[in-house]
Amino acid sequence: MALAVSPADRIAISMDAGGVAQVRLVRADKMNALDPDMFAALIDAARVLHDLKGLRCVVLSGEGRSFCAGLDMASMANTARHDRAPLTDRMHGNANLPQQVALQWRKLPVPVIAAVHGVCFGGGLQLASGADIRVVAPDARMAVMEMKWGLVPDMAGYALWRGMVRDDVLRELTYTNREFSGAEAHTLGFATVVDPDPVARANAIAAEIANRNPAAQRAAKRLFGAYLHASEAEILMAESVEQQALIGSKNQIEAVMSQMEKRKGNFVDV
Predict the structure, then answer these.
(1) Cα 12 to Cα 23: distance, rounded to the nearest angstrom
(2) Which residues have CB under 8 Å from 155's CB, separation 6+?
(3) Which residues fall within 8 angstroms of residue 194, CB to CB, at 6 or more apart?
(4) Backbone angles phi, psi at 177, to 5 degrees
(5) CB-CB neighbours of 76 under 10 Å
(6) pLDDT for res 1
(7) 73 or 41: which carries more pLDDT confidence?
């Protein structure tokens, strides 16, 4: 099932019968670089997905030679400064527009998997970092690139990398904008899995996720969204609240029965 996103020449989005949605960056001639239209299309894609019935998992990927080369500097330079909202404006809850482009994948109620190949620089790396899981090609080229342009990472990178990348490693990569491979990204903490065919591997993981209790998957994601900044007491209570709602529910009983009967689960959509 294809879904409409505007503008349509930046993002293609669809969902299969199993509830796995594909979000593909399709600006291949520019290595999927981020321009104002790409920002708008990514925001619209998350809006479409947020309340989509039957959604179980999202795979985020880029067509062509690269996942995302980062900001399209020429396009951004051509956008008059007075036409841009101040970055201090909170236009999307706790975030500005560029931050929301990366952070929104953490805000989606279902797991998101980024499949990364080719170039993944700057804003592209922050976009991928918004996913729950990152499957990266071993020869992918990655960098915290902003310092090269006299800037700092500002697409929610500091928030997303907290707990993911060791602090001193992140400082070195930020200060130097040193390029590293997908294979090294696994050691550094940016990659969850390294695979020469990241899209195929991401889809295999997504299919496995889609065959689990969707209510439990969403509950787990809510817990992950809170546990890095909540107190111990808040985390313990949140666990209890989520578990209390799951125990004995129709989907939880079906999860047990499907495992005992060694069959695919037949879950009610959340």
Answers:
(1) 6
(2) 98, 99, 101, 102, 123, 126, 127
(3) 135, 136, 137, 138, 182, 183, 185, 186
(4) 45, 35
(5) 13
(6) 87
(7) 41
